Amino acid sequence: MTETATIVVPRTRAHSIGRLFERLPVLQLLALLGVIAWALIRIPALINPIAISSILVLAALLGIAAIGQTFVVLLGGLDLAVPGYITVGAFAAANLAGMHHVPIPIAIGLAVLVCATAAGLAGYLCQRLRIQPLVVTLGLGAILTGGTLFISGGQFIASPPAELRELTRVTATTFGIPVPPVVIIWAVAVVAIGLFLARTTSGRRFYATGANPRAATLTRISTRRVWVVAFAVNGAVSALAGVLIAAFSAGSSATIGEPYLFTGLAAVLVGGTTFGSVHGSYTRTAIGALLLTLLATILIGEGFTEGESRVLYGLIILAVMAIYGREARLRDRF
């Protein structure tokens, strides 16, 4: 007769705290609170409705632009075509809807269709042919930007229709609530995407595909479909972000999307979602977008030049990433 013994390894307090920090954006929230305190101390003028609304609008634009990149990063990929998607969306808002008076739903629908199709094809090629997304999406971004320049003849001078500009106006209200519509749209997106990733089977497929593609395939998950959907979502949502960014800027340009590639990716990573992370989420990206927007506001308020702001901005991002961005999954990849 044999006996089996079960060895129970007790959980230490440090282990429990570590697990909590992995599953919840505790450090990210602490960093955000620290930046808010710094902003209120150094720039007291921020404590007024207009300033708060302006910060929320800027954070919403960045957060919406980073939605699709969050999905791609969860898969362990990176999409460098984001500026191209945004440029196409801005072109649709300014040139098609603004200059040529194409109905707004049709103009936006065309931009979303073009970007989603192109991005989905890029995702398919990357997964099917095992090509690095950096190579494919870099070329795709150049094609999209060049295409808008060709079609427009280099003219990005029109302003989006008033209906679109109203969505991002700092002093606008939403159903009588003194909050701009774009902020409400972003808040709804944060909740909806959070529930999708955490509570649905499709959301769990994203995590499984990013964490271990081979194991995901063995469990009958169509990893190719997941890649196509993730990239297509990035293209579609980034095009919508381009519409909103053009509305906020009251115009468009061939370079309107470039700042959102770095800042959007920074929001994802600073928020704590790393490549192939099983604990990443769009909620973390939203916190990262708020943190970076406040940080940029502080640097401007302190009188930093553009060059000085870029240097300090990058150093702070590196410092934050060193604190909570390098989880075990990321260390194993490099």
How would you explain this protein's 3D organization?
73% of the residues lie in helices and 0% in strands. The chain is built from 16 helices and no strands. Helix 3 crosses helix 9 and helix 9 (181-199) crosses helix 10 (201-211). It is globular, with a radius of gyration of 21 Å. The protein starts with 12 loop residues before the first helix and ends with a helix.
Our estimate of the beta-strand percent is under 5%
Shape type:
globular
- The CATH class, by name, is Mainly Alpha
Largest sheet: none
SSE pattern, N- to C-terminal: HHHHHHHHHHHHHHHH
What attributes does this structure have?
16 helices, single chain, mainly alpha, ABC transporter involved in vitamin B12 uptake, BtuC, 334 residues
Task: Give a brief outline of the structure.
This protein has 334 residues and is mainly alpha-helical.
Q: What is the element layout, followed by pairings?
A:
Blueprint: H1 13-23, H2 26-42, H3 49-65, H4 67-74, H5 82-99, H6 104-129, H7 133-152, H8 162-168, H9 181-199, H10 201-211, H11 213-218, H12 223-249, H13 259-270, H14 282-301, H15 306-324, H16 328-333
Helix pairs in contact: 2-14, 3-9, 3-12, 3-14, 4-12, 5-6, 5-7, 5-12, 6-7, 6-12, 8-12, 9-10, 13-14
